[in-house]
Write a structure and sequence with these properties.
Helix content is about 20%, strand content about 40%. It has about 375 residues and is of the alpha+beta class. The longest helix is centred in the middle third of the chain and has 17 residues.
């Protein structure tokens, strides 16, 4: 407030018509003399009206009681409690726009499993003045249930992947190998709350996995085709309607071939090694000479596996010439002579397979070095 004596002097000056002498600058709030700061206020009045930050006394947050994810901005995310504290403060603090050089110190005090007290200390410069403030805020946890756990509890699913084999039953080792590839797919994708497994079970002739995401099911089927070949068949069934659109569920039937890359097979009365996969079938390499060809999945249904890759051996030759090599039979330790493969480079070792009771030397494939 401007002193009454000062107001009276102003009125006198006005009536006399003489020039008014205001006597220099003064605080518009209390009338104090300079120095003045923001909006022509003195330091004391500026400090009363300016604060670094406005902090609520209580901040409530939600945590899923099943999977322990936190609800942050309407999304359920996984993070450490320290990161959650910073996120909650960033969302609830109102910092003065004119504050510069802000330094924040946080000290957490756990009261119980639901309440945590944060002691905050702020340092900043506002309108040329250095400010220091201390605040106390209580974080209160409430239990919730995330969307993923809600759908899991309700047996929600949108996709089913059926693992089968062509012409034979999948072994337990093969089932474990195929199932483990799903974990690799999930680990390599951007986290999504819908990437969950609703249920899985071994069924007659294979294995069924029920998923909460069609995208995950399709990504897994692509990996299965790239690594083990085979065929995938997709079908969609309508299970309801929402907002005028059909709600569908996806079923993917994956059939793994009855053979793997590197296996020795008999096809069209000729011995071949499976060299790789294509979208339509397998690539075959002939054992007797340099020849490669492609065969469709339908054609390969007539192929017979004579020696899988896991039963093939790398043996050391005891003698060799330009066309034949001799090694010791690992079963009887008797010498065996075989014709050298067409791509033999003079190495002392060769890969052999026992085909219908006879030992056969095999040309090399890329899978052989990886298998070693």
């Amino acid at each position: 407030m401007i002193p009454i004596s000062r107001i009276e002097s102003l009125w006198v000056d006005r009536r006399s018509g003489e020039s008014i002498d205001l006597g220099g600058d003064f605080c518009l709030v209390c009338g104090a003399e300079p120095p003045l700061y923001h909006e022509r206020m003195c330091e004391q009045c500026t400090r009363i009206r300016a604060t670094i930050a406005k902090v609520p006394q209580h901040i409530q947050y939600f945590q899923c009681a099943n999977c322990y994810l936190y609800d942050v901005g309407g999304r359920w995310v996984e993070m450490s409690f320290e990161d959650l504290q910073e996120e909650l403060l960033n969302r609830n603090l109102q910092v003065d726009e004119s504050a510069s050089g802000l330094v924040t110190k946080i000290s957490a005090e756990v009261i119980d499993d639901r309440n945590t007290v944060l002691h905050l200390e702020f340092t900043a410069s506002i309108h040329g003045l250095q400010f220091e403030e201390q605040h106390v805020v209580t974080l209160r946890r409430s239990n919730g249930v995330c969307l993923t756990c809600t759908r899991r509890a309700g047996n929600y699913y949108v996709a089913t992947v059926q693992l089968r084999s062509s012409g034979r039953r999948l072994s337990e080792e093969e089932l474990n190998e195929l199932r483990a590839s799903l974990d690799d797919v999930i680990a390599g994708m951007t986290p999504d709350p819908m990437f969950f497994i609703s249920s899985e079970s071994e069924v007659q002739g294979g294995y069924d996995v029920i998923l909460g995401s069609k995208g995950l099911a399709r990504a897994w089927s692509r990996k299965l085709l790239r690594k083990w070949g085979g065929q995938c068949k997709e079908t969609n069934s309508v299970v309801g309607h929402r907002d005028g659109a059909d709600i569908t569920r996806l079923t993917i039937l994956y059939r793994r071939p009855g053979y793997n890359i590197g296996d020795v097979v008999r096809w069209s009365d000729i011995l071949w090694r499976v060299g790789g996969w294509t979208g339509d079938g397998a690539v075959l390499s002939r054992i007797e000479r340099i020849e490669r060809c492609g065969a469709s999945w339908r054609d390969m249904e007539k192929a017979t596996v004579l020696c899988p890759l896991t039963e093939q051996l790398e043996v050391e030759m005891v003698a060799q010439d330009s066309s034949a090599g001799e090694f010791l039979n690992p079963e009887t330790w008797t010498p065996i002579t075989v014709r050298l493969p067409y791509d033999h480079t003079g190495s002392s070792t060769i890969r052999v397979a026992k085909v219908e009771g006879e030992w056969v030397a095999l040309p090399n494939l890329g899978i052989d070095s990886r298998d070693e």
